[in-house]
Every structure is written in C-alpha cells, then in structure tokens.
C-alpha cells in the first residue's frame, strides 16, 4: 500500500479529533487500587476516589471473586485455548450459563466475550441468520429507541437492512413505537423491538410493562410475531430488590435479555438469556460465539461467583448498601441546591450543569482534588443538558460521598 498519503489522511483525522477536544486515546493509567472497603485508584502515585466506574457493587476486588478466579485459572489455565465448538466447552462456562439462566428465570443463556459481542450476534442473527442458507422468512422491521447503546446500533447496521426496515422511535415514546408497529404490520411478516434497560447517560429506564403490552398486542398482528430484546447491561446487579435490573423494577420481561459481567458483576464478558430455542439458535449461528474465544476460565469463575453471590445474604447486603448510598447522595445533593438531570434510582446519577465548558472545568477541578467523575456534553446529551455523571458504588462510604458533595456544592 502506498502509505504516505493515507497516513497523512489519518494524521489529519486525529488532529481534527484532538482539535474539537473529543480525544479518547489519552486515557489515565491506573497502577492499582488501594485496599477495600472503599478502593481508590492509584494514578501517578496519588490515590483518587472513584466515582466513574460501573463496578456498582464493588465486586471486582471482592475476595471471593479473586479466589474463584485464581483457583479456576490453576485448574483450567489462563486462557480458553480455542473456541468452544472446536476445543470443547470448559465446565466453568457451562456452569456460568446455567447460573445466569437460573438467575434470570430463563431456559438457557449463552456467554460471549462481551455484551457488545452479544448484541452484535443476537441482533444480526435474529434479523438475518448467519449464512445465506438460513431461512428466517423475509427481512423484519427493526425498531430501536433513539438513545440505544452503540452495540445495538452497530448490530442493526451490520445486518445491512435497507433503511425502510430499520426505524427509530423517539426516546421512551411508546405512542411512537406503537405507531411504527401499527404501520408496519401490513408490510412486514415480523418485527424486532430493541431497547436499553438502564440508559447510561441519565440512568433512566423504559417502562417494560407498557412496552410488553404493546408488543404482545402486535405479536398476533404480524405473521411471524414481534420479538422483544432488552439490553440491561447497566441495570442487572444494580437495581431491583434482588438485582434483576429493569425487568424486576418494571415487572415485565424481554424475549431476549442481554447483560454484561463487566459492570455490577465485577468480572468481564456478556450474555444473552432466553428460551431454549432462541439460545440453541444463537449457539448455531452467532459468529462472535462460534469464531471467537470465550472469556477466560478465571473470568468465567469470577462471574459465576458474582451471580451466585447476589442471591446470598452478602449480595443482598451489597444491594441494600448501594440503594442507601444512592438515596443518601441524592438527599444531600438536593439539600445543597444541586440539580439532577433525571430522577435516576440507579447508581448513575447525572448532575445537571448546562454548559459544556463549565462541566469540563468542574470535572478537571474534581480530578485536581483526587475525585474521578465524567463530564457529558452534546451530542451525547442535548445542548444545554451538559452533565457530570457520578457513578455510585456499594463500597463507597458516607465519608467518600460527603467529601464529593461538599466539593460539588462549593463549586456550583
Ligand atoms: C447498554 C450497554 N450495552 C452493552 C455495553 C457493552 O458492555 P461490554 O463492556 O460487556 O461489551 C454497554 C457498556 O457500556 C452498555 O451500556
């Protein structure tokens, strides 16, 4: 390849990204964490309070997960060796899938290297099937919330559906969803409705009960029915009395539930849970399952330990501690006159700042005071809705939260 001109193009693109200050590659390097119960990140030899992590229950440093990971690595080695259908499935992967299926009260579950890979596979395969011999009827109508996660958007893009088959409904607007389903029923034999569980910018969530009612209504109006996929990567392990996520707080369920082990479960990897035929079909057709390694045995063991822990008293205690931290944080913020961008009941707590520069400066100032948070601005949120995203954890203690809120209120 004649590299120099192409390199020049890439160089210009990187310069453009840097100029508009949306650079992502200059990540902070964390050299470790201080001791539990409220771990701080070591950055350049200084310890920072972590309020920007998805480790909602503080499980990534939990002694039981660490032990499970160590013991299983000693038994099975550090890597999976090969993809499952070639080399054989390691017992721990199967145990994890059974535990996830039980946890979500589904027939079965399938583990992927990430929730991103799970979404790509599930969405692609239920739209199209993996090979040209697959006969799933005609191409479906796919309907997606406008704020769905990138992995959902890419799953739909990957399927190469024509534009008319992929429609977006206004965020959480169920009348709009209903209109689209209603208009599509004469033209399409089947439809797929896809939503995030917890939306990661504001911590809000869809009314799954309402969505389920609409979907059930139209299920019989489409020859091949309407499939409902919910990706609750942020919600599972973080909300609901028993940590079952948005399904638990809304009292309704998806046909296909996507989740991750990389957030509240403190490990890594993703999964889809559903009825037997859906999961069997995914095992036969998902490229990111068939042609890509699964998570390491140690990672699977840590995830398995986390899933089981959630149903034990220790897990319930963490869930209650997280709930209390959320309630306490909101209460003292409101007392100090701080404004929230949503009524989130989730550990994602967005503080409304309303100006991009102000939000960035405040996050920098928090960093100078050894507190890690995230500023979020347009186009991720609408203009004027700039926020600082605080992510709480069960292992934060009151002193950590008091310190953060004191700083925020002094810098309003
Ligand atoms: C809704 C949603 N789905 C999927 C993912 C990706 O999860 P993973 O890191 O397991 O790929 C995320 C992560 O931010 C997410 O918020």
UniProtKB/TrEMBL annotation:
The keyword Transferase appears for this protein: yes
Name recorded for this polypeptide: Aminotransferase class I/classII large domain-containing protein
Keywords (A to Z) from UniProt: Transferase
Keyword Transferase found: yes
InterPro entries on file: Aminotransferase_I/II_large (IPR004839), AON_synthase_class-II (IPR050087), PyrdxlP-dep_Trfase (IPR015424), PyrdxlP-dep_Trfase_major (IPR015421), PyrdxlP-dep_Trfase_small (IPR015422)
Residue stretches making up the Aminotransferase class I/classII large domain: 51-407
Example GO molecular function: pyridoxal phosphate binding
Domain of life: Bacteria
Source organism of the structure: Candidatus Gottesmanbacteria bacterium RIFCSPHIGHO2_01_FULL_40_15
Requisite cofactors: pyridoxal 5'-phosphate
């Amino acid at each position: 390849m004649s590299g120099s001109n192409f390199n020049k193009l890439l160089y210009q693109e990187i310069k453009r990204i840097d100029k508009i200050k949306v650079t992502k590659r200059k990540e902070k390097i964390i050299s470790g964490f201080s001791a539990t119960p409220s771990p701080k990140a070591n950055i350049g030899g200084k310890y920072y309070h972590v309020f920007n992590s998805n480790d909602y229950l503080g499980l990534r440093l939990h002694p039981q997960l660490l032990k499970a990971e160590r013991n299983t690595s000693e038994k099975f080695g550090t890597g999976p060796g090969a993809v499952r259908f070639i080399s054989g499935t390691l017992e721990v992967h199967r145990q994890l899938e059974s535990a996830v299926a039980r946890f979500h009260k589904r027939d079965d579950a399938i583990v992927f290297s990430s929730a991103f890979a799970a979404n790509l596979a599930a969405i692609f395969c239920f739209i199209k099937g993996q090979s040209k011999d697959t006969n799933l009827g005609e191409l479906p109508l796919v309907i997606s919330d406008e704020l769905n996660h990138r992995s959902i958007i890419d799953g739909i893009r990957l399927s190469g559906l024509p534009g008319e088959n992929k429609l977006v409904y206004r965020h959480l607007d169920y009348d709009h969803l209903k209109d689209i389903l209603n208009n599509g029923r004469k033209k399409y034999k089947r439809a797929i409705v896809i939503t995030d569980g917890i939306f990661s910018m504001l911590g809000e969530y869809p009314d799954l009960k309402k969505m389920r009612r609409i979907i059930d209504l139209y299920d019989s109006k489409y020859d091949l029915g309407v499939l409902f996929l919910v990706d609750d990567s942020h919600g599972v392990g973080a909300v609901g009395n028993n940590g079952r996520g948005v399904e638990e707080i809304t009292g309704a369920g998806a046909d296909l539930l996507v989740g991750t082990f990389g957030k509240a479960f403190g490990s890594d990897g993703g999964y889809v849970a559903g009825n037997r035929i859906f999961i069997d079909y995914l095992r036969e057709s998902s490229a990111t399952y068939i042609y890509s390694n699964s998570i390491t045995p140690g990672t699977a063991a840590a995830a398995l330990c986390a899933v089981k822990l959630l149903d034990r008293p220790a897990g319930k205690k963490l869930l209650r501690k997280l709930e209390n931290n959320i309630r306490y944080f909101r209460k003292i913020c409101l007392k100090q006159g701080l404004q929230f961008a949503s009524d989130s009941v989730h550990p994602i707590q967005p503080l409304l700042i309303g100006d991009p520069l102000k939000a960035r400066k405040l996050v920098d100032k928090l960093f100078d005071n050894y507190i890690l948070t995230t500023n979020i601005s347009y186009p991720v949120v609408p203009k004027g809705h700039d926020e600082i995203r605080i992510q709480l954890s069960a292992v934060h203690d009151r002193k950590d939260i008091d310190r953060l809120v004191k700083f925020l209120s002094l810098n309003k």
